[in-house]
Amino acid sequence: MRYPITQAYRLLSPRLLTLITTVNLKNGINAAPADFVSPASFNPPIVIVSLTPGIRTYKNIKETNEFVINILPRQYLDQILRCAARYPEGINKLEIVGLKWYSSSIVKPPRIKEANIWLECRALEEKRVGDHFAIFGEVLAAEVRDEIIKEGEVDLAKVSPVLHLIKDNFAVDYKIIKHKRYDYK
Ligand SMILES: Cc1cc2nc3c(=O)[nH]c(=O)nc-3n(C[C@H](O)[C@H](O)[C@H](O)COP(=O)(O)O)c2cc1C
């Protein structure tokens, strides 16, 4: 079967679901799920996050140049997806969805407490890529929760990340599940 080329990105699945934290110029905290997230360079350590220009996360990164990639375990899938709903400026979505946060080690955007993995990043540059902007972020600090380390290496079973497949289909612990999306009307 031929697949529509504008939907071809869906065939690059599953993608790791992350929650990106940013702040605005008044240090107001924001969080949004993103799965267009990819490693791009070992050394220096650079990642790419591809964002639609209309969202607050993009605006905050433009203003402050910093973001944190948080990887939360499967039990927080509902909270992660609730952060995709739009709220007025000044509302901290983490408070609304019931996630906690604490200060990062280098950047202003906070880390989410419930996450197992945190990458603190500084935006180096951006490139317009069609209807998205690819943000190139240098990783300034990376930390994993001690409990997810087994024999000196990250134990992915303990990380229990959520993977996004298509629309409301997600994979957790190698099982495909459906979960309501809050960014759809
Ligand atoms: C599973 C999932 C993955 C998403 N991935 C991205 C992404 O990679 N890039 C993006 O710009 N938006 C992505 N979004 C949409 C944003 O999270 C959504 O537009 C959100 O409202 C942005 O919030 P903000 O305006 O507070 O930044 C995704 C949403 C969901 C539910």
Describe what this molecule looks like in 3D:
By secondary structure, the protein is mainly β. It has a single domain (5-178), classed as Roll (Pnp Oxidase, Chain A). It is built from 4 helices and 15 strands. It has helices spanning 56-64, 77-82, 93-97, 156-159; strands at residues 15-16, 18-23, 29-34, 37-41, 46-51, 66-71, 101-102, 111-112, 117-129, 132-144, 149-150, 153-154, 162-164, 169-172, 175-178. A 7-stranded antiparallel β-sheet has the order 3-2-6-9-10-5-4, with helices on one face. The longest helix is centred in the first third of the chain and has 9 residues, at 56-64. The radius of gyration is 16 Å and the shape is globular. The two termini are 29 Å apart. The mean pLDDT is 96. The structure holds flavin mononucleotide. Flavin mononucleotide binds at residues 17, 30, 32-36, 50-52, 55-57, 81, 84, 86, 164, 181, 183.
